Fold:
Amino acid sequence: MMKPVFVIGGGLAGSEAAWQLAQAGAPVVLYEMRPARQTEAHQTDGLAELVCSNSLRSDDSETNAVGLLHDEMRRCRSLILKEADAHKVPAGGALAVDREAFSAAVTEALTSHPLITVRREEWSLESLKDGDRVIIATGPLTSSSLAESIRQMTGQDSLSFFDAIAPIVYRDNIDMSKAWMQSRYDKGSGSDYINCAMDKAQYESFLHALLHAETTEFKDWEKKTPYFEGCLPIEVMASRGADTLRYGPMKPVGLTNQHTGQRPYAVVQLRQDNALGTLYNLVGFQTKMKCAAQERVFRMIPGLENAVFARLGGIHRNTFINSPLLLDKQLRLRIKPNIRFAGQITGVEGYVESAAMGLLAGLFAAAEAKEKDFEPPPRTTAMGALLAHITGDAKADTFQPMNVNFSLFPLLDTKRSGRERKKAYTERAKDDFESWVKFSV
Structure:
């Protein structure tokens, strides 16, 4: 009888790894420490809970590397993408989900699978026996005890960065006599976001309040921890220059104020957060402001004067390993090949990237359990490029979390530029991925 593979962590990566293993016929024991032990960011005990945002980002597989990753995962029969598609909410060209329904569906799929046993307890590295195969997918909020065990085992200090969470408001408290529904450039249905416009004076007052608001104080041991550039707190972005927000999350391009017929000076967009449409999150407004300051500053946004917050923003410390130094091309720990890592702990950033590495770890482990050869996806594909980056292409001495992007792909010999160049990357990737998945998955 085939020995079970132990998957540690019930987030996106762990859930996807467990699913791929079980679908390949390998028994799985999935450990998730919640609710016995909660983290500083999770709200529920559901598997695959989305913490920071409800968006899996662009679903455009022709010109966007994230959308291409979506496409590849769908071809591998990803559980995460299947349930995301089943529980999506309007978000223009992005794939966003009702986070509670999504998590509930993933939890049901895994707990009801005959080859998956879910254990609600904390796992320790010391419990690992000779011959056991394990995938550690504990994510950026790995418990301090497990992080210390990994550090001692590898002889490498864990690397860390700060990540932030955006606030969520109730839809019925948004003043639609000031706000309006529209997607940037009218993508999606054309009206997937709530928009709150600011003129120059309002923007400058908001910026001043933002820069002078009381923020969370870091502990001494946290003060040298960097932020992840892809998810900076709104007030940190604002500190980089007066127009930084207007060229970032508050950019007004592609939008027309339906109350005035003019393009706003700056705009705050809110994205639907649940299927009922009762909750909306402030896009790009992750923050480290204290609670009272958040309520005061965010109610300065036109249309949100009477906002009621279902959840305020926050900040938490994330942990990842130095994967280029520690992992081989199949996500195995070089010094202990029976241990694999997957998800954000490997240094990929983003829900989709984390799930993709969980998917590959599951496929690698399933093939190994069956004593079969399994080649990684081609370097020219989104999965292959991301895998190659974290397992050797990135420099170990400067390794930082990375989203999938076309700069990770092998260069194309083409004179095309812009959108056409991106299409050339995705066309090559789809052709190469099709050849790989046909004989591998």
Observations:
- The chain has a mean pLDDT of 91.
- The chain has two domains: 5-158+321-440, 165-317.
